[in-house]
Design goal:
8 helices, 180 residues, 81% helix
C-alpha cells in the first residue's frame, strides 16, 4: 500500500506531462512547492489523516512481521481485511452527505446540521453493525475458499476486528461531521 501510494504520487508528476499535452504547462519543482507552502496550513490536517490511515494498518504489519510467523501475519491481514468491509459501508452515506453538511454550515443552520449529523451517526453505526453481522455470518462460508484452504478462520480474531470496525465507524462518523 505504501509503495502504491508513492507510485501514485510520482506517476502524475513524471508520466502525465508526457501523455497529456495540457499538463506540460504545469511545472512542478522544489521552488514552486516552497511557494505553495502558504496553502499547506489549511490542508495539512487532511493530508495527515490520509497518512495516519495508511500507517495505522501498515505500521502494525511492519512491527508484527519480524516477531511472528508468516501464517500469523496472513491471518491478521485477512481477518482485518474482512472486518474493514463493515466500515466501508459508511462511505455510501458519507460521500453524498458531505456537500449537504457543508451547505448547512455555510448557511449557519446549526440546528439542522446537528440534527442531520445525529441522524447520519445513527445510520452509519447501523450500517456498519449490519455489515458486521452479515460478515460474521457469511465469512465462515467463503474464508477457506478465499485463502485456498491454507488458512482457517479464527472466530475470536474476526469478532475483535468486527467490533473494532464498528467502534471506528462511531468515531469517524463524529469526526466526519466536523470535517465536512
Amino acid at each position: 500500500v505504501l509503495i502504491t501510494g508513492i507510485i501514485g504520487l510520482l506517476v502524475p508528476i513524471f508520466d502525465l506531462p508526457k501523455r497529456v499535452p495540457a499538463i506540460k504547462k504545469i511545472k512542478i519543482d522544489f521552488e514552486r512547492a516552497k511557494k505553495g507552502k502558504v496553502h499547506l496550513s489549511g490542508s495539512i490536517r487532511f493530508w495527515l489523516m490520509s497518512i495516519v490511515g495508511v500507517v495505522k494498518f501498515q505500521g502494525v504489519l511492519l512491527m508484527m512481521a519480524p516477531l511472528v510467523s508468516p501464517v500469523m501475519v496472513a491471518l491478521f491481514v485477512t481477518h482485518k481485511t474482512v472486518a474493514n468491509i463493515a466500515g466501508y459501508l459508511t462511505q455510501l452515506v458519507q460521500g453524498p452527505a458531505t456537500p449537504e453538511l457543508s451547505f448547512l454550515w455555510a448557511q449557519k443552520r446549526f440546528s439542522d446540521l446537528i440534527r442531520l449529523q445525529g441522524l447520519l451517526l445513527k445510520l452509519m453505526v447501523f450500517l456498519s453493525g449490519l455489515g458486521a453481522i452479515f460478515l460474521w455470518l457469511f465469512t465462515p462460508l467463503v474464508y477457506s475458499m478465499w485463502t485456498g484452504g491454507e488458512l482457517q478462520l479464527e472466530p475470536s480474531l474476526l469478532l475483535i476486528f468486527l467490533g473494532q470496525a464498528v467502534l471506528v465507524v462511531c468515531g469517524n462518523a463524529v469526526v466526519f461531521g466536523m470535517v465536512a
